[in-house]
Every structure is written in C-alpha cells, then in structure tokens.
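note to self — DONT lose this again. spent like an hour looking for the file last time. sequence + predicted structure for the chain T wanted, 324 res
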Amino acid sequence: MSASERLTDALYGIGWSTVKKLPEPVAVRLGNAVADLAWKRRGKGVLRLESNYARVVPDATPERLAELSRAGMRSYLRYWMESFRLPAWSAERVRNGFDPKDVHHLTDGLASGRGVVLALPHLGNWDLAGAWVTTKLETPFTTVAERLKPESLYDRFVAYREGLGMEVLPHSGGSAFGTLARRLRDGGLVCLVADRDLSASGVEVDFFGETARMPAGPALLAQQTGALLLPVTLWYDDSPVLRGRVHPPVEVPESGTRPEKTSVMTQALADAFASGIANHPEDWHMLQRLWLADLDPAAGPDTGPANLGTDPVTPGSDPAKGSL
C-alpha cells in the first residue's frame, strides 16, 4: 500500500469513526468550513465544478458561477458529513431525513412484482435516500461498487453500505449484471448512479445541449428483465431534510434494435436528470469532466482522480451506487 493510499484510507476512517460522534450543528459548521476552504483554494475540482455549472446555467456571470461553486462545495461537504454520520442516526432520524415526492411510482412498481431500477445522478445525498428506502419502506436493494484501492478502503465502503441495508456487488468480475438481473426478475429493487460513463460502452446523450456519455446498464436491465426504470432526482433546501422526486417510468420503446432502444431510454434518463440539475445546480456534485468536448482524446477514457468523493471508481459509478 502506497503512502497516498494509506492516507486516503485513514481519512475515510476518521470520517466514519469521529465525525459521526459530533453533534449535528458542529458537523454542519465543520462541513461548511472545509467546503469554504476548498473553494477558496480554487483547485482543479472547484474549477471543474464551475465549468460544469456553466453548461447548466449558460447565462451565469463569473460572479454567479463563483456563488454556485461555493454553494456546490457546501452541498458536497453536507453529503459527506451526513454520510459519515448516517451509521449513528436512529431509524426515526433516517425516516424523517428524506421527503420524496411521487414515491408512489416506486411503491406501485414494487407492489406489481416487476422489479424496479432506480437511476440517479450525483445530486444531493444518494446514501441517505438509500437508507430511507431500507428503513422507511423496509425494502432492501442491490447496488454496485468498484473495487477501490487500497482494499481496506473498499471494505470500509462495503461495510458502510451493508450497514445501511444495501446489498453491494463488486463491479469487477463480470457477474454484477447477471446478479442484478436475477434480483429484478425476483421482483427486487436495484439502485444505480447513472449520470457519468466515459467508458467505451457509454451511451451518447444530449445533455444541456452538448454530448456526454451515460451508462447503458439501467436501460439494458429494464429491457432484459421487464423491470420498471425510474429516474430519481434529489436536492437540499434550507431545512435538515433531503428532498427528492421519483419521476414517471421510462418506457421501453415498442420498436427498434436493442442499441436503439437503449439510446432512447438513456436519453430519457438524461432529460430527467437535467430537469433536476437545472432546478438545483448547486446540489449536483460533479467535480469531474463529463462532456466529451472537455476530454483529451489522447488520454483515453477519463476515470477521474481517486480522492474524496470524486468517483474513485469506474466511470459513471459511485462508491455508494455503481453503474454498469
């Protein structure tokens, strides 16, 4: 294990062992202080965040983009402070910590026995939303995580998510898709973060007027299993409660080849994600390159830096909920 890997593992360990013990107001102030410090340093992540926001809010002035990026970093650190503290939250705190609209799309889908795929962008706190599903709805679900380095860090993430009631499958090895399909055919729930995939298998979509790639997995799973595909968007307001919306189902087109159907369905996901991001850009935690125009063709697929919260996993996935 390299020195940087040991440091990364230690920092995450401190987060889960120490931050969760802090009183909530203290954790909020700490998160804001860390966010403001990172924002003032104007590092690559903050500059990339502003560049991404410029696509979302094309008429924003430099001053407005700076305001957005500061709010974005505060939202980002709120995610991490909450995630570090989630294992210590009571069941009541989890149940009251998330207030989704139109959740009937999810509950009706599960009641039908079809199986449901929830697809989310990097908005708000997807860990908290997942904990709410396992606690409030008493519904376990399956997700995917890339094997992190060092292995001890991957083990921390898996233990954390499993402690919240999630079944976590390793992305590597090629068996994740088949396992997810079996869970869905049994009427289960699968959750995947799905707004970024720069691998060769990514599906090109129009996203805020430019081309990006998003993972094909959610659409393929829905086609192969008959599961319901539901986009979900999340956001914060000034309260301690995470807000969200379960969007109407993305239907499988009646005609076309499998790639054509996958393209149409993935574009529908992108459109739903864009609607939520446009309404709450500061809660979109995308500190990496996303649009193809930003990539260096000579460098190959952009997997992003392996640091706190910036997708230290397969492109288009997150340690909480991976994509395929």
